[in-house]
């Protein structure tokens, strides 16, 4: 079994008030092309499909187009809601979509949600756990003792129908730590102060692979098979050093896992540059298409009249502009568009 692990699409997101929809449509088409070329057996989307609980019509259409591309390949798709999604809205029409092998998890209830697929070695069960808070699980299981996120996920997993004779994949969207060790986080994520929403990776020992969403940097937590795939695009300048990629997971006959990554090529990269105005102007002239990247520019000049407008003459997609001297004094940056 070979499947693609995606998450944190955040379709419809705006970064510094610039819409990312065109960039998202480009990268989603790339992902669909890889699914076709690599002949994957399934695609898993681990939450935060949209950036808002009530997405725009344009965002809805972008995701619809992506699902159409995958359905034409006859590739099963498993989708859960993240903390940015509304599980109820995301799962509208789920029963109908299942006719096209698109399995969208409904809001959390006491009834486990499982999609069973098969390969030449037998069944592979994908257990779908949308983002849950302790209150969600307490409502479903009022007799259980649930005081924390860790308790909530423990109880939810405890009531799943996990077949020990099958290979098992959990699809979840939570903030996962390993014995208190914190994963790498980014500015664009919603993580509670102090990590009160953390869930320990040891809860997932029954699963051969855990497809996580929530954090935007690709990384494993606790063991290699408990993994965040990361977002397909950069959504903050804290992500500028990251290389975004598609995660492809292979499951062998015994549940052994292999993980490979295929780098994605964004329509516009997101990066940070610094220097004097005239030096950056000369640099931009040599960069070709890269001059259209989404940029955080830090000017070494003490001041520059109409700085944002002048920098945009050669770097048209500046999202943020700072003066190094002002940053040293803790002053606010100029952010686009202006």
What does this structure look like?
It is a single chain. The strands form five sheets. A six-stranded mixed sheet has the order 6-5-4-1-15-16. Strands 7-8-9-12-14-13 form a six-stranded mixed sheet, with no helix packed on it. The chain has 338 residues and is an alpha/beta fold. The mean pLDDT is 93. It has helices spanning 21-37, 57-72, 87-90, 94-97, 134-140, 149-158, 277-285, 307-311, 324-328, and strands at 2-6, 14-15, 18-19, 42-46, 77-80, 102-104, 114-119, 122-129, 167-173, 175-177, 198-200, 209-213, 219-221, 223-228, 245-251, 257-263, 270-275, 294-299, 318-323, 334-335. Helix 5 runs parallel beside helix 6.
Query: What is the 3D form?
Result: globular
Order of helices and strands: EEEHEHEHHEEEHHEEEEEEEEEHEHEHE
Largest sheet geometry: 6 strands, mixed
Task: Report Rg.
Answer: 22 Å
Q: How helical, in percent, are the residues? A: 10-25%
- Total DSSP helices: 9
The spatial strand order of the largest sheet comes to 6-5-4-1-15-16
Indicate the low-confidence ranges by residue numbers: none
Distance from first to last alpha carbon:
49 Å
Number of strand elements: 20
Share of residues in strands: 25-35%
What structural class do helix, strand and pairing data support?
alpha/beta
Question: Averaging pLDDT over every residue, what do you get?
Answer: 93
